[in-house]
Structure formats: structure tokens, C-alpha cells
Amino acid sequence: MIKSELIQKIAEENPHLYQRDVERIVGTIFDEIVEAMAAGKRVELRGFGAFSVKKREARTGRNPRTGETVKVEEKYVPFFKTGKRLRDRLNGK
């Protein structure tokens, strides 16, 4: 599912809301998740999962084509851990 499909589904299930308002709501939710993660905070949606940021230390890597040693700088990467309800649903429980 992509963002526009999510907006369409919410708009169909809530005919009293204008589509532009649904777009603004969904956009605001995603923006807030991004802002919280950019600030290093954890975002938890009960039953769905938790988004957090993990730090990857600097390391020495290899270029797969040439085999040459490459220095990889430290960086922060997003991490998602599924909630119990989602995990159970995916496993047919």
C-alpha cells in the first residue's frame, strides 16, 4: 500500500471528511514521525510497532567490484520493530 492508497481508503471510510483534510492528517502524522526520529526519539504505535534510530559505527568495508578497502563513515539508520498484534497477525494467530 502506498500513501495515496491509504488516503483514499481513509477518505472512503469517513465520507464526512474532505479528501484534502485526510491528506493533511496523514501528511502530518508522517511528518511528526520523521521529526521525532530526526530528534533521536522513539515512536511507538501500540499493536503495530516501534520506530527508532540506531547508530552504525564507522568501519572499514570493501568495494564488491574491485575488492578495494573503503572507509565507511558512521551513520544513523531507521529501525522498525513489529508489535505483538502485528506479528501474531502475520503468523496467522
Shape: elongated
Order of helices and strands: HHEEEEEH
Q: Total number of β-strand segments?
A: 5
Q: What's the CATH first level of the largest domain?
A: Few Secondary Structures
Q: What is the total number of structural domains?
A: 2
| Poorly predicted runs of 5 or more residues | none
User: What would the CATH topology of the largest domain be?
Assistant: HU Protein, Chain A
Structural class: alpha+beta
Helix content: 40-55%
The major β-sheet equals: 3 strands, antiparallel
Strand fraction equals: 25-35%
Let me know the average pLDDT: 95
CATH architecture of the largest domain: Irregular
Supply Rg.
19 Å
The span between the termini is 22 Å
The fourth-level CATH homologous superfamily of the largest domain is: IHF-like DNA-binding proteins
Q: What spatial order of strands do you see in the largest sheet?
A: 1-2-5
- Helix count? 3
Q: How would you portray this structure in words?
A:
With 93 residues, this protein is of the alpha+beta class. It has 2 domains: 1-39; 42-93, HU Protein, Chain A (Irregular), CATH 4.10.520.10. It has helices spanning 3-13, 19-38, 84-90; strands spanning 43-45, 49-56, 59-62, 69-72, 75-82. The strands form 2 sheets. A 3-stranded antiparallel beta sheet has the order 1-2-5. The chain has a two-stranded antiparallel ribbon with strand order 3-4. β1 (43-45) and β2 (49-56) form a beta hairpin. The radius of gyration is 19 Å and the shape is elongated. The model has no long low-confidence stretch (mean pLDDT 95).
